[in-house]
Design a protein that fits this description.
Number of strands: 17
Strand order of the largest sheet: 1-2-3-4-5-6-7-10-11-13-14-15-16-17
CATH topology: Porin
Strand content: 35-45%
Largest sheet: 14 strands, antiparallel, barrel
CATH class: Mainly Beta
Radius of gyration: 26 Å
Helix content: 10-25%
Shape: elongated
Distance between the termini: 39 Å
Oligomer: single chain
Structural class: alpha+beta
Number of helices: 5
Length: 421
């Protein structure tokens, strides 16, 4: 059984994460994550979305009231993934794995060599020593170099109306990251094995550790137009959700990193907590044409803490609050958002706090171009530049695609498929 076996996203998430983990001789460090919807519309616009429209209600449930009269039902499915591997840890680790296997075969097969001259013996040992040098150089190159991966999947069904708009959703997001833990004593072990003609890869001291988390939730959201004034409109919304937080950890020797034993999603490597939680959102629009918009959103009013007893690791999912402001006219939206509080994090690591800006340009009512930028005010996560495009023929079916890049070779993409009835 795997980490996500009890959630509807288990197979998809495991397929995206496990192949990478099986390649990495890494000590994985999970850093703070972006703790909500990973949608292409929001991503392309610099991860801003608190003041968009009702299609972005996962970001702010109060937006459920911002719809057109012809909008009856809205469906959307989102996928997103982000990775950072500045030092090519994944490719280098795969090379190390293959080279260790070859070195082991060559050393342990020395008794089968049929040497015809001293020159052949010298060439054989020169080749072994060169293999050791390459392996050690690769280990030193990626020692303590970080690689990070995160994902997001969500689905929502929204039913807006003039009284109380409602929606149903499922949402999952998670994160892992990695760093090589190279033990310098491994160089002596490999050199001694060349001389003795016997190499046991289990003798290597470099270790591989995996740590990460997944947050899965499902629930209902609702919004009510609290005030309709001549000068402004005010809406309030809430999400009631059932939430499961999974924390996983595994530690094995480097020689085992590509074996079936290196599996962070086994039951014995998991600690989880489940319970109900609540998000609250406020949204206000003002101006002669309601061109100004502001929002305040608080996620996860109920604190959740998961503690891995064996490794003494604690992950805290706590309340976080963000504020957003935007200017919107027929062809243009400009938005800015700032976290007022820190985001969820591991107790031993510093949390993130984001500030974002974004723009959307609309052409012919059916094509949208988006640009944005996000920075971490706590200087934990990398700065990110985003871009996206949306195509929505007849405002019925929509495809939104976003891509982003940032410091430390951070890259990512998101896809959103939507249907409006």
């Amino acid at each position: 059984m795997t980490l996500f076996a009890k959630t509807p996203w288990s197979k998809a998430y495991k397929r995206s994460i496990n192949p990478i983990l099986l390649l990495l001789p890494i000590v994985v460090i999970a850093l703070p994550s972006y703790s909500e919807s990973f949608t292409a519309k929001r991503t392309g616009q610099g991860f801003t979305g608190l003041t968009q429209d009702f299609t972005s209600s996962l970001s702010n449930p109060a937006l459920l009231t911002r719809f057109d009269q012809e909008d009856d039902v809205f469906f959307s499915l989102n996928f997103g993934i982000m990775a950072s591997d500045k030092y090519h840890v994944i490719d280098t680790a795969e090379d190390i794995s293959n080279n260790l296997d070859k070195l082991s075969d060559d050393i342990n097969g020395s008794q089968l060599q049929n040497f015809q001259s001293i020159g052949q013996v010298q060439t054989y040992y020169d080749d072994l020593n060169q293999q050791v040098d390459v392996i050690i150089a690769d280990l030193e190159k990626i020692d303590e170099k970080v690689v990070k991966i995160r994902n997001g999947v969500n689905f929502q069904v929204l039913i807006p109306n003039q009284y109380v708009s409602i929606g149903f959703f499922t949402n999952q997001y998670g994160r892992v990251g990695g760093i090589v833990d190279y033990d310098e004593g491994d160089e002596k072990i490999l050199n001694d094995a060349v001389l003795s003609g016997n190499l046991d890869l289990d003798d290597l001291k470099s270790v591989t550790t995996a740590v990460g988390y997944s947050i899965a939730e499902a629930g209902i959201m609702a919004a009510y137009p609290a005030v309709k004034h001549a000068n402004y409109d005010l809406s309030v919304g809430a999400k009631l959700k059932y939430q499961r937080v999974d924390l996983f950890y595994n530690r094995v020797k480097i020689s085992e990193f590509d074996d079936d034993d290196f599996e962070i999603t086994n039951d014995e490597n998991i600690t989880d907590e489940s319970g109900a939680n609540i998000d609250l959102g406020f949204y206000i629009a003002w101006g002669d044409e309601r061109q100004w918009h502001a929002a305040l959103v608080t996620n996860n009013l109920i604190k959740q803490t998961v503690h891995h007893v064996e490794q003494d690791i604690t992950f805290t999912l706590k309340s976080s609050t963000s504020v957003g402001l935007s200017y919107q006219i027929d062809w243009l939206s400009l938005a800015a958002e700032v976290d007022l509080t820190d985001r969820e994090h591991f107790a031993s690591l510093e949390p993130s706090k984001y500030a974002s800006v974004g723009a959307e340009f609309r052409f012919y009512e059916h094509i949208q171009f988006r640009l944005g930028y996000r920075t971490d005010l706590n200087d934990i996560d990398d700065d990110i530049y985003t871009a996206g495009i949306g195509i929505s023929p007849w405002d019925v079916f929509a495809v939104d695609i976003a891509a982003f890049t940032g410091d430390n070779d951070t890259v990512g993409a998101a896809l959103q498929l939507s249907l409006k009835i």
